[in-house]
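Thread: quick sanity check before group meeting

JM: Hey all, I'm pulling together slides for Thursday and realized we never actually wrote out the predicted structure for the chain we discussed last week. Dropping the sequence here so it's in one place. If anyone has concerns about the input, flag it before I start.
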Amino acid sequence: MTAKDDDTTQLLGLLVAGDKAAWDRFVARTTAVVYAAAQRRLAPFGRQDDVEDVVQDVYVKLCARQFRVLKTYDPARAKLTTWLTVVASSTAIDHLRRQKTANRPIDSVPEAELSVDPPADPVQVKIPDGLLSPRQALVLEMLYKREMDAAEAAEAMGVNPQTVRSMHHKALTKLRGHFQAQEE
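JM (edit): ok, ran it. Output follows.
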């Protein structure tokens, strides 16, 4: 462990303890990384004007719920800058998704989606036994039935949020392949 790693660990400890000066130092040291990651993610969509909003969202996410997300950082797994890049990138993606939904013209929304009543009979999908690994099935349950986000599911499972996103993606890929094969 280098002196810089020790300094980062100490700074994060002060942050989580609620030290305002530590928070100011943390923001000053990390803003360029967070800003660059948000800008890279938003630029292909022509949303450069939203970069500052995403940067704000990242810092709000880091300190929300008594620094819940910030506490998930593990210096043994990645450098702080790498971890912040992932957090900023996922926050930018979430921002794009919200904007896409928020900016949808009302005329393009099907009548059924405008209904305030929940569907009378939700579709139940039968997933064949053995198609998904137990961990993939658990991730789908947490994300869809329990309506947890990736960070919450990761904390419950004791893994990294990226691991949850990866298992989610692999499970959906398996399901798509299975149901497409059935249609053919």
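AS: nice. The mean pLDDT is 82. The two ends are 56 Å apart (CA to CA).
JM: adding both to the slides.
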